[in-house]
Amino acid sequence: MPELIHHGFKVLNYNDYYLYFNLSKKNVKPSNVAYMTSDMKQNWDPTIWDNDNDSSLNTLHNIVGSSVSIWADKDPHSKINDKQVLKASQKFLSQFLQLARQPI
User: Fold this and answer.
1) Average pLDDT for residues 17-24, to the nearest whole number?
2) N-to-C CA span, the chain
3) For the chain, which residues make up each domain, given as ranges?
């Protein structure tokens, strides 16, 4: 991401550490949703784009936003329906929107 920004590209932060909601039977449980939501709040920083490396940026310049991802690998044994996805992700999405609106 730093190279893209250096060359004038505008980017979205998709930090995979706390901006991904991975759907599974385990993760849609209220206690796990609460943990993921709390973790996002604790780690929120749009200038950190990758928690696996030293990847802090010095500025928000050309970071035009952040995005949360809700996804799941295909698992024929996992029967998560649309209502479960909506219910489980509402708190997570609400926290994301609240954080994204805060001035840095």
Assistant:
1) 84
2) 19
3) 2-100
